[in-house]
Structures
1.
Amino acid sequence: MSDNQGPKRFQTPKGVHDILPKDHEYHTFIKKVVRHRCRQAGFKRITTPIFEFTDVFKRSIGDETDIVSKEMYTFEDKKGRSLTLKPESTAGVVRAYIQNNMQEWPQPVELYYIEPHFRYDRPQKGRYRQFWQIGLELIGESDPALDAQCIQLAHLINKDLGIADRFELQLNTIGTPEARAEYSQVLSDYYVGKDRSLCEDCLRRRDKNPLRLLDCKAEDCQILADLAPKMSDYLDKESVEFHEELKSYLDEMGIEYKENERLVRGLDYYSKTVFEFWDKHEGAQNAIGGGGRYDGLVELLGGNPTPAVGYAAGIERMIANMKISKVRVPSKDNLHVFVAQLGTEAKKKCLPLIQDLREAGIKTMGALGKGAIKNQLRLADKHGVPWTVLIGITEVRDGTAIIRNMEKGTQETVPMEKVVSTLKKKIGAKNLDTYSPGELLYS
């Protein structure tokens, strides 16, 4: 490194990004919507570790899925044990269900999460290597009404975020494991001799996970998939009846859907119901989320046979669609008041005043490290505050403060002890950011 080059400027690794304050406003709003809707429905929040033993994902997601074969961040700890940053949360939630004896809780156990995940995927629009998801899991009952509730809750979240009209619900059933095994063999036979028309990924999937050939995005693979035998011809009676009952519930709730026989989802643990919310214009390329029933996963991870259904959606994709739809989210970060001062004695008066203003619910910033009043007022302008409090040598001597309306340029002088009450009236009670620790504990 040459002397004039200076220290290296670091960048984020490829596929990850900083969540800056403006995007955190979207994150905060999404979390509030999800918490509200989930609490309404009796769901409880769960957080599983960022990493699990690798076998949790290999056994649940499937060795031949793209996630396990190509996309997991796997490493060894100091004792040589294989660990993986979680690429999805359902497997960890099911592991937690078994480990913490949740089968003893009232069933179904209804859980939700808001978590970061990690996949070594090709970065592209709405897809990152570290990404956030919200998710719902209903574990312990097999009933199409629960599938309908899960879909309805996902739809309501999209609606509350102002993006429901951008997406179309795609719906399918992939049957029981037995029916799926029979159909998988039929598909394998159909693709024999068609190697030259398959992409590299589909050549690998054909013998190990043939259902995945149906949702490949490559043009030649899609043509073959259109001509392939249909899953509906191989469904068992139980799966057909389950699916018809689910659709009757969705019809009753007024939730529109499109049946899509090629929708299979990418994870091995699904059975019967599968669904996704697709962009009405870009289709699966910009799906916001999806889910389905996974009745065999609890047993696969060492528990007793336990039915379950779930859903997950990408927060980054939610935000991208909210921005496209010009959805404005409320900001809790905007300041009410900027306190400017001149001189050491004024600064001493400012410190307790700033804290009193904050305790009263008035979001306040003080330029305690700045010099000239002109520079402080310029900073207040940049923060867009509606009110500024000014304290100088004269105000310290008189026990007063100047309150300036930044928009109108008008100002008034008030006694120091009345600054807080005066500003509370000007700002308005409904705009104050107040809370009581006691109320939070017992609300």
2.
Amino acid sequence: MPKINKKTIFSVVVFLLAVGLTFFIFSGRGKVLTFNNQDNPKQKDQAVGTSRPGQAGGASPFTALSCEHYDRRPVAVMISGDSVVRPLSGLSSADLVINMPVITNSITRMMAVYVCGDPREIGSVRSSRTDYIPFVEGWKAIYGHWGGSHFALDKLKTGVVSDLDALTDFGGAYFRKPGIPMPHNGFTSTARLLKAADQLGYDLTNKTKEFFPHLSLNEDHCQAQDCSTKKTLSVGFPGSFKVEYKYDFSTNSYYRWRGDTPEIDANDNSQVEAKVVAIMKTDSHQIEGQYNEVTVIGSGDSVVYQNGLALEGKWQKKSETAPLQFLRENGEPIKFVPGKIWIEVVQTDQEVNWQ
């Protein structure tokens, strides 16, 4: 029998291992997650895809803008409104952001919703409040937050949404960022959240084509004479929480300011902008002296700002699981300009100016 060379044996073994590994992965028994090292949060994250590949022409159900993973399930994240942590990370990447008081006539907090955007960092991540949960339910989103009021946590324990709480962090979805005081140093990313959601068995596929109707592309810029000048939308939250949107006709965008300072995204130093700003007027009152209760089920007055114009109407959310709608006075849905959306939830007596 001829003597077999050791190099030949080694080559055969390597070949057989490669064939076996290939069969293991492509037979569905192995699962590859495109996710970076959890120990290095500054490294750019890669998003976990949905269970079906993206197709040409697909668009976000919020913005109507096309993107690679338009069919990915929305991810909603609670974000601080406090001035101590500004500039915040990840606001420019959100398809939609809700800003709402968590204390009557005082502090506001945001919830950013992501489908197309993949920010490398999102934060500062803060706690949940019950008023935000019905929006998560209506959009069938995965919900990221750092703890919450006991009202919110009791509700989340019932399983009403696919929940990712940092206090019971699964899979390293969150991290503490050095150099920032607690409780403001909690951060995450869409990639981290999607990886954890996938490991928990949550469905990662969006099944809703659109949450808001949209104008066609040839209708998305105002042609009227009264929208060709620059105007400012002011929302009367107190102190450093005061919000302004400065409309620029040349870009047909509303540039966000807070506390007389531009709202900057720390990820890329860009100013946050929107194509649609919707004012949702509703009731708010304190409970237990430290929490807020905002009416988000039912209907109330609204004003939608887009194309440099103000469209008065009604907001409507028929149930906790129904999506939010903005309607004209005759009940017809308001068609949004394609692009990013900001929703400002204000008390009925809150001052809102457009001039």
3.
Amino acid sequence: MCARWMPVENDFVRTEARLEEDPRLFTALAAIIEHAAGRVGMSDARRQALIRAAEQTCRDTWPASNGREPVVRIICDELGDRIEVTIQFPCAPEPGTEAKIKELQKRVDKATSEMGQGSFQITLVEFISARQ
């Protein structure tokens, strides 16, 4: 696992990590979100909802190795009014991923997915204050 913390501006902090195929590394994901949520003053309930959603996203969509090392990139952005957690996978989504996104949308303020060239990402957003 490789992680770095990058302060960019007063209202924006980004933390990135690369997780290799080992579910024990999900604790790193929880620690990143916990740290970000603590920095911005997010309530415990909102913090835990975001952590659970991010961990479930990794469990449900972790790519098969297909002969290569599946590295998942985690990006946690602290913005003025929210935390955004982006989980980037190195391959196309598994069937049923869109249904999982719809379920995530019930658990966090916003959940979206985006396809790239041979990869995809899921972004989870939780606002610091009441749902917006």
